[in-house]
Amino acid sequence: MPTLPPSAPLSHSVAKPAGGQKMVIFDVGETLVSETAIWHRIASHLDLPPFTVSAAAGIALARNFGFEAILKQLGDFSAIAGEPWRRPDLLSFTANDLYDDVLPALSQLADNGHKLGICGNQPASSEQVLATLPCQIDWLSSSARLKCKKPDPAFFRAIIEQTGHSPADIIYVGDRLDNDIYPALDHGMGAIWLLRGPWSFAQWQENGVPNGISAIRSLAELPALLAA
Predict the structure, then answer these.
(1) Do residues 201 and 215 share a domain?
(2) What GO biological process terms does the UniProt entry carry, in alphabetical order (predicted)?
(3) CB 127 within 8 A of CB 145
(4) What is the extent of the structural domain holding 26?
């Protein structure tokens, strides 16, 4: 079984700007927000036990199916009418779904002088929730607003253009190698892989932490890592 080494200094990034401040951009699902409640609502809507939905999602995930494909297959299996992947009431989240380490980590990063941003594959409604967080957010967007989804290069180009920061001064934090980490590195950004959530587990179980990738288990580790 792969093991996680201690977090290493950032890889694939150039020297920090004066003062060491960065623009830190966060993914949303399973990075800032736990999607557990979403999956429970999906299970209830499809009249399936939560364990069945979780196990089926894990199997589909291991076969590299995307989120919408997993929901479509579950819908076909349950024979419940409707398209759950198009239901905002099922897929939305609230501030109560934030992981416990989010607000303390973001507050510490802001106190350390970093700029903070949030942008993931989310509907525009997600911005309404995230805009109310009791912490500094310097830039907020979503795939719906950008009209492109990760790992589309246009998504990462938009981050660079709209934040006004050079790629070398941006760090993207996310839970997926394929959607978050590798595309960010390909665009000259720094990247930190957060090991939580099912996609992260599936990718970690297959290969561990790839060489040159900086990984953390909790956002609580992030301020110290960026200060190193």
Answers:
(1) yes
(2) small molecule metabolic process
(3) yes
(4) 18-34+96-227
